[in-house]
User: Fold Gsp-2 protein from Symbiodinium natans.
Amino acid sequence: MRDAMRPLHRRSVCKVYFVYLLYLCGALLWWASCRVGRVSSFALPSNSALEQGEAHGKAQGPGMLYEMIGEYTLPKPVVVSPRKAWELWMDLGVGVRKMEEDTYVVAPQHFSKYRSFGQKEAMYLRDMQGNTVSDEENPGIRIELDVVTETEEANILSELQELVDRHGYEFTTDASDDAALAASWRLTGRDEKRTEALAPWGWGSDFDKTKLPPALRRVVSKLEELPGYPLGPIRDVTVNMRSTDDYQMVPHIDPLGDGPNTFVLSLLSSAVVTFSPLAALRAEAERANDDEHFAQHSYTDEDIDCLVPRRAAYSFTGNARYLWTHAVRPSVRPSAEDPETFERWGTWEKVLRRQPNRAAIIFSFADEREPHTDPASESVPSGN
Assistant:
């Protein structure tokens, strides 16, 4: 997610205002092709902005709409571009529906293409009262256990250490925290800072799976072979490595260009990942931006906590991908003298002891269907 917003051109400003009127109608079409879950409002806030052109480092790339909720900059599922719908599939890895001239809303595959929610989701998802999350309440979060073995985990970590030394860079969501910065490393093929070394496998439609190291390439193959996931080409592999228990991941929505199908593999330790609906974040913006408050009570009362065991992966699609943020809350110490830190899972009646080492590997895929290849056609790969 990019933190800086680019200045608006006059034409772009006009488009943003026009999208006010069109956003809700177009998004309703998108909603019809997604799992409902807890559907958030599609109303475009007045503090949204447009990033035009260079969203993917390409002069002719689509313009991206963003919303600010306190300190959080969140991409909207809408793009502004003069390009054809089938061309945008190459930029985003997902179908789009035309709202108006040069304005499109994303249209991911229908939820019925994915495996049904089951016992794993009942075991590992909790609401803020500590209750299991029903199928109707689940916006598109799934758990896959034992994606890799202990031996495979060791091989992956060995490969990653070598890659981080050559292509990784220090990062933290809190730029003022020097200790967290020194203990956190990121490796990605996505051009985020333009000054940092990039992983050799690239990103988006230019992703080259052959450039992945062998152990990571085997994980991609495993994910592609999972039943109940209609996956297209892989578009992103990003690695976050931490050697401290003092960290958080702020609520965010991944860049649209990553694709509509995301898996996050947890290595070295377990984690609790928190999903928040945009409508609730807007309604409770002050609370959601108060570090001390959300560490104890989460970002909103509508949040869903996902417990991710070591060597398991969680996936998110549909509304969970585009209408909910995901985050990792900061850990809490029982007392200033206590050397251990904990994070809640649903409520403080169930806690996870945070370990000092964790690697999270993000794998993002396009939708299964290929776009229409006729430049004269306006066909859109809806996936329905």
Summary: The chain has two domains: 10-111, 115-366.
